[in-house]
């Protein structure tokens, strides 16, 4: 409950202009998200060009022109338009996306930070790990990240299938019971972005959201150090103890 309230307060203090790209796959802020965005725009524009071409040929074929019938009905036109063109186009697109996907999945350098995110019904458990893999700091529904540093997420679930989606920084990754999946992100600048579960997981699925708070490396290190300190008792509890 406290984590949800804190997330709501952070959202409330954001300027109105920040809301436009708070959760948007076309407003990338990491190399991974930029590459995904590039693939998306390639598909959008490519589909638009092909659609216009097909519609133009359709109108031309319906014009009643005898020449149009001969040209479009010729065997060569059918082989080029119906076989060669899609094979070449889809093969080029496959090669391009596989190359980009390889760069996304297997970065060439080790991560500077490892974070375990556990999907629960209906919230997110966030564990910041030491180099030995032990839990250093634990939070919920809010993930702090250092700008410019490569972060590796270890994603798992304790119940049903969830899907970790932070569109401004990375693509969707399913969290499947019994498996651990990894995702690597390098945020490019400080800011606050929203993520959510992208797989229907139950009655409160719509409320299963989280915030990613990207800070400068210095601010992140200070935040992590503060989180390691023992929790302070509430003021009311301290007064009652006197």
Topology readout:
Layout: H1 2-13, H2 31-61, H3 66-73, H4 75-105, E1 113-120, E2 123-129, E3 135-140, E4 142-146, E5 151-157, E6 162-165, E7 173-175, E8 181-185, E9 191-197, E10 209-215, H5 217-227, H6 235-241
Order of helices and strands: HHHHEEEEEEEEEEHH
Described by the principal axes of the CA atoms, the overall outline is elongated
Overall number of structural domains: 2
CATH class of the largest domain: Mainly Beta
What is the total tally of β strands?
Answer: 10
Oligomer: single chain
Low-confidence stretches: 1-19
Q: Give the termini distance in whole angstroms.
A: 28 Å
Mean pLDDT: 85
Class by alpha and beta content: alpha+beta
Work out the helix count: 6
**What is the C-alpha radius of gyration, as a whole number of Å?**
25 Å
CATH topology of the largest domain: Immunoglobulin-like
How many strands, what sense, and barrel or not for the largest sheet?
5 strands, mixed
Proportion in helices = 40-55%
The second-level CATH architecture of the largest domain is Sandwich
Our estimate of the beta-strand percent is 15-25%
Name of the CATH superfamily of the largest domain: Cupredoxins -  blue copper proteins
- Order the strands across the largest sheet as they lie in space: 3-2-1-5-8
